[in-house]
Design brief:
Blueprint: H1 10-27, H2 33-40, H3 46-67, E1 77-79, H4 80-97, H5 101-109, H6 113-131, H7 133-139, E2 145-148, H8 151-155, H9 159-183
Helix pairs in contact: 1-5, 2-4, 3-9, 5-6
Amino acid sequence: MSLPVVGPLSLPLGVLSGFVFGWILHRARLADTTVIVNQFRLRDFTLMKAMLTAILVGGIGVLFLHRHGLAAYHIKPANLLGVAIGGVLFGIGMAVLGYCPGSGLAAIGAGSIHALVGTAGMIAGAIAYALSFDWLRTHILSVGALGPLRLPDITGIPDLVWFAILALALPALFAAAARGEDAG
């Protein structure tokens, strides 16, 4: 049995989820520009720890939902040049603004004017991407286009083994990050 995710209940659930997500971002200090900028300066690894933990927990959750027929995978195509350019632009924007889209919205909820201005820039970038998509699809997204791929499909290593590897690696990564914070 699955919970309804469409219909009249979906909008209030979405709003509630957004508030909970924003609250969690604030409690974890991930809506604080200092924490995000210091991640790029290799002085505070709170963001990295949160992201790696979210990848592990979320990945296992999605795998569980998929295996029980409660969710379906929608694998995006691996377009290497597009992902590389997008990652660089995203990283620059995040380092300059001090927010990613989620933490920017959480900061707006807390009254941050510079997050509001930055979010306007994110929206402008999304509009520019949409307006130039046909050109990008031909000249950028076609370079290194590998189709929809997942690590288990490429390597033959099952999903649960990948999650076990990540779970075993996290303590070592967190310890290394703590040493980096102490040295910084």
